[in-house]
Write a structure and sequence with these properties.
Number of helices: 5
Order of helices and strands: EEHHEEEEEHEHEEHE
Number of domains: 1
Structural class: alpha+beta
Number of strands: 11
CATH topology: Aminopeptidase
Radius of gyration: 17 Å
Distance between the termini: 52 Å
Shape: globular
Largest sheet: 8 strands, mixed
Mean pLDDT: 92
């Protein structure tokens, strides 16, 4: 009989204040950065090289998340997703933030364009959009053994505000929050696959 081993993970929850007024870098000839429409996202979801499954796109749109893309002559070469509602931790466990925090849901750069820091202008634009929509903080969740990502987050001004501990065993997931997470009012909720959950979005979103 095959044994089932429990999986224990520890996540650092990082937060930084959103700041406006960044000077957008020169992207070079033929490149642009902007918010992608729903139709564009569903079109690009058909591209297997973008790590953008259609089910992810559809669920993100339903949750009123948005995506800022970097395009070169109409080709999507990098993107960042930003969200406001439930942020997936593991399995069915999601973290529900407060009313002034957004999270980084997903980011990607095509391999041939990596090293050009294309996600930086996309992040700058997304920050300004979130500020204009009434949001004040950016949240990320990074496993504590991912030292490179933690160091990158610190360079961007993030500070660790607490930790989440998750234990997956068989078909159950247990989540513990440290006091810092509880003080900020971040809650753990359970959502079935494809379930939208509580909806939050930008001012003016339908």
């Amino acid at each position: 009989m095959e044994s089932v081993r429990p999986r224990l993970q520890v996540w650092a929850v990082n937060r930084r204040a959103l700041v406006s007024g960044y000077e957008m870098p020169d992207l070079g000839l033929g490149k642009e950065v902007r918010v992608l429409s729903e139709n564009e996202l569903r079109h690009f979801a058909d591209d297997p090289g973008l790590d953008l499954p259609r089910r992810y796109v559809d669920l993100s749109i339903a949750r009123r998340n948005f995506c800022v893309g970097v395009l070169e002559r109409g080709q999507l070469i990098a993107y960042v997703w930003r969200g406001f509602g439930p942020a997936v931790i593991v399995a069915d466990a999601h973290l529900l933030l407060d009313d002034v925090s957004r999270f980084g849901a997903k980011a990607f750069t095509r391999p041939e364009f990596r090293g050009q820091h294309l996600q930086t202008p996309a992040s700058m634009l997304s920050d300004q959009i979130c500020i204009d929509g009434g949001y004040k903080y950016a949240i990320s969740m990074i496993e504590t053994h991912n030292f490179a990502s933690l160091a990158s987050d610190r360079r961007r001004g993030n500070e660790i505000v607490g930790y989440l501990v998750t234990l997956q065993f068989r078909d159950r997931t247990f989540v513990w929050r440290t006091p810092g997470i509880r003080r900020l009012g971040y809650h753990v909720i359970r959502l079935a696959p494809g379930e939208v959950g509580p909806i939050r979005g930008l001012v003016g979103q339908e």
